[in-house]
Request: fold
Amino acid sequence: MVAAYAATILGAGWVTLQLAAGALVLSIAIGLAGAACKLSASAPLRLLAELYTTVVRGIPDLVLMLLTFYSLPTLVNDLLAAAGSDATVELDPFIAGTATLGVIFGAYMTETFRGALLAIPRGQVEAARAYGLRPVRIFTGILLPQMARLALPGFTNNWLVLLKATALASLIGLQDVMLSAKAAAEATGQPFTFYLVAGGFYLAFTLASVLLLTWLGRRLDPTRREAAP
Reply:
């Protein structure tokens, strides 16, 4: 019976990984947009990005998760009712978890990408413009390769914290590793065993992520590439 519950917990790991991957993609997109806004010449865009990162980083992740899943649909339904509509909105736990984690870690990615972009010498962009390169070509050919290398340490930290933060989604009913472990612990009276299985799952993917990103960092390091035979 213990083995069957353990298999169920590890099977729910697929949901956790999908949640982490979806939130990561969303956070990267928000982070790139946020960094661009923070470095923009437009004062309103800079103010908007600063407000976003300050507010999101100043509120606990759990509060944002509960606000998104419970309070946001209530607010929308009240507005619909006030407008005379009978329609109601309910959020799926997976969508709410992905969106919330994406928004939260988008704020951290914004600062990571902004710092990486600032570390790239401004003269490179000015020289590219002088040669007539378009903004998209400047970003993909000059800024992005260097930004990826410079941002990798901060990106790694953000990803590891995001992966562990997926456990919060169990509190809004998502059938992930943590909720499966909780159900197994309550059914068998063996909380140590099943929470240990859940901990082992997160530790395994954390170690795998560190190894992968360390390898990627070496591949992106120009000094190591030049030294390679």
User: Anything to note?
Assistant: The longest helix spans residues 135-165. The two ends are 54 Å apart (CA to CA). The mean pLDDT is 90. Residues 78 and 88 are 9 Å apart (CA to CA).
